[in-house]
Amino acid sequence: MRRILIVGAGQAGLHLALGLQQHGYDVTVVSARTAGEIEHGNVMSTQFQFDSTLRYERDLGIFFWDGQPPHTPGTRFMLGGDGPAPALEWSAPLKKPGADIDQRVKMSRWLRLFEERGGNVVIGAATVSDLDRWAADYDLVVVAAGKGPLAEMFERDAARSPYTRPQRMLSVVYVNGFQPDPAGPGDHSVDFHLLPGRGELIVMPAITTSGPCHILFFEAIPGGALDVFGDVSSPQEHLDRFVELLERHVPWVCEQYGKLELTDAGGTLRGGFAPTVRRPVATLPSGGRALGMGDVVVANDPITAQGANMAARSAAVYLDAIIEHGDRPFDGTFMEGVFETFWVRHGRVTTEWSNMALAPPPPHVQEILGAASRFPAIGDRYIAGFDDPNDFTEWFLDPDKAAAYLAEVAGAAAGPVR
Questions:
Q1: Percentage of the chain with pLDDT > 90?
Q2: Is the pLDDT of residue 418 over 80?
Q3: 200 near 194, Cβ under 8 Å?
Q4: What is the DSSP string of 150-181?
Q5: Gap between the Cα atoms of 303 and 354, Å rounded
Q6: Residues β-bridged to residue 89
Q7: Whole-angstrom Cα distance, residue 48 to residue 305?
Q8: Phi then psi for 408, rounded to 5 degrees?
Q9: Nearest to 225 by CA among 241, 202, 204
Q10: Could you tell me which residues come within 8 angstroms of residue 314 by beta carbon, excluding any fewer than 6 positions away?
Q11: CA Rg, the chain, in Å?
Q12: Which tens digits make up the pLDDT trace of 244-255?
């Protein structure tokens, strides 16, 4: 039986661990916290997932929240202007609903499940020397702990990492009391509010430790009007300041946030990081190798809601590759190859799109978002791209392809010339 060590008990690490466990591998997971500490700690992410990555979990029998509200069948985009209403607004359905499960809920349940099924769990913050000591006892070492010294073992890939500093500062609140927009499709939609020169507000229905809630988060341009959370000293102060920004910068949602309250004392999060792609193989002090996955090797800004989706995709690709590899050694060639498979299938386009979203929108993107308010087919295709970003190479990322697509849609809407 092949022995595999996975350091990190998040979306990528536990997904892979549970999958390997089902296929008979001897798996050890190193988690910095117990399941109880995860469940009762602070929120860690915003973690919305689309249908294609939820299917990975359903196929493994580890998605336990089907049938629980809220479901999220639709999205809305609003472009802020100078007045009390959005300058531009359009909506589009998701082909199949997505879901946002608080990682405190999901990871605590997954870690308990892994233990119940006989998995080995080591609790503690692993160091590089720990990893070096353990590596000789395992056929493969996978690092899925996205921050800290272990992640820093993996060299930054400068060619794939255009940014060296954070492009957005994130401020998150998990709240109850968010009211449906009476003019909108209901309370189960993901709403994107684009605030030119300031950043973005994203609103998502979710399931947290106490049940249904909403997650609101500002993506603030560093040093700008929304980047004002550096000195908050309590969760309530964080929420109060958040509401002040809503009143000032997103007045069209004023009827929705009049009764907001935090879901719990751990329901806030703030910070920022430079989007980074790292090389997938790290050499340990004694000469052994470790394979990086998830946020360790591809950490995109959450502006495109791809973080948990990318982690799930990496786990699915790595799981298939490990199983297909059979009894052969997990050498450097295997490690480089499995990451490149993930990069080509999922990572490259998602990263290019996410990095584009952090910059001022180029003219062709402005045209696309404007046209989506007139032609539903454009909005539908754009939203479908969140579940399959590879489609963006066919029309969204390239100005010439975008122009051709917009002309095609406009021509079809005009009908045949008589």
A1: 89
A2: no
A3: yes
A4: HHHTSPB-GGG---SS-S-EEEEEEEE-PPPP
A5: 7
A6: 78
A7: 6
A8: -65, -45
A9: 241
A10: 12, 293, 294, 297, 298, 342, 346, 347
A11: 22
A12: 999 999 999 888
CA 250 to chain centre: 24
Identify each DSSP E strand in 166-280 by its residue range. 169-176, 189-195, 199-208, 211-220, 261-262, 268-271, 276-277
Q: If phi over 0 gives left and psi between -120 and 50 gives alpha, with beta otherwise, what is residue 287?
A: left
Taking residues 312-340, what's their average pLDDT? 97
Query: Which residues are registered as beta bridge partners of 76?
Result: 91, 191
Structure tokens at 260: 């907001």
Structure tokens at 384: 């479908």
DSSP conformational letter for 265? T
3-state secondary structure (DSSP) of residue 237: helix
> Which tokens sit at 45?
């992410």
CB neighbours (10 Å) of residue 48?
23
**Closest by Cα among 298, 158, 273, 161 to 222:** 273
What CA–CA distance (Å, rounded) separates 412 from 414? 5
Q: Is the pTM value of this prediction over 0.85?
A: yes
For the chain, the straight-line distance linking the first and the last C-alpha, in angstroms and rounded, comes to: 72
Q: State both tokens at 203.
A: 């609103």
Q: Return the number of other C-beta atoms located less than 10 Å from residue 277's C-beta.
A: 22
Amino acid type, 390 = N
